[in-house]
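Hi there,

I know you've been waiting on this one. I reran it after we fixed the sequence typo, so this is the corrected version. Both the input and the resulting structure follow.
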Amino acid sequence: MIKKVVKDDYVILFDTKTGQEVLSGINGNPDPFVLDFPSMMDVGIMGHCKNNCEFCYQGAKPQANMTLENFKRLVDEAKDETMQFALGGRGDPNLHKNFREIIEYCRENNIVPNYTTSGNGLTDEQVEISKMCGAVAVSAYDREFTYDAIRKLMDAGIKTNIHFMFSKYSWHDIFNLLIGVDIWHGKVDLDRLNAVIFLLFKPQGRAVNLKWEPLQCYYNWFIQYLRMANGRVKFKLGMDSCLVNKVQQVDKLTAVEEVFMDTCEGGRMSMYVTPDMKLSPCSFGATNKWAYPLINSIKDVWDNGDAFQRFRGCLEKCPIQCPVTGN
């Protein structure tokens, strides 16, 4: 099914089956820098987590999980113009007590739900529910529950990705992965794996004192080996916009790469919602400085929220610089 949003100056086409989205200016207008409403919402339905990972940028302070009532409010306001909900927060979304209702309500309202999980405690019932998702990503923890979750999701025919953190200490594995080495030693069925998505290490929250930031030369090497990976790996490769920004700071993208890789879209095409219903341009910026309480409507915050206007102003001045860190 193709979901379509048409404005005076742009059109969005979204394939709810494949996840492919096309955004184009119309009536002689260029592609928009800011949408009238976010096409993707990163929704933090989880407020606490049992994994306590030292590198979690969400922080250690526990919150209550998002209520089903509040989640439905988000869907009701977003259903006409938002294509996807990326479910996350501080914990595994599949462990939310209303996981089934959350996924079903998205689908009932023509929003494609996706989520990321550690895989720790993933049940057969949760896997069955996940068949309604567009895709599920499993974080690369290199634990038995990681590989068990990946296998369960693949066996259920679910589009399965691996989220791999790009840091100073993961470079060796990333290098080997890009030249075609099976770094998981047969524990992952690479023929059925949909994609590996690289996520930039973020020194915030629990990770604020970790010195894991990649060296600048790693970004140079990364983009070079990424370009040579075609034909060496059996799955797709991608990266979050935070990493795209870093890569573009060290190497100019080709014309083809620019079509498939965008700089930070926070506050322009997407937003983050905290478990207690605060809106922020992105999950990394979900602090008091960049968060705005949802009082009247999502549209009101999107258009008039000071945090969103300041965030966009930073990106207008320098699209490849993070407004949160200034780097």
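Quick highlight: The mean pLDDT is 93.

Best,
R. S.
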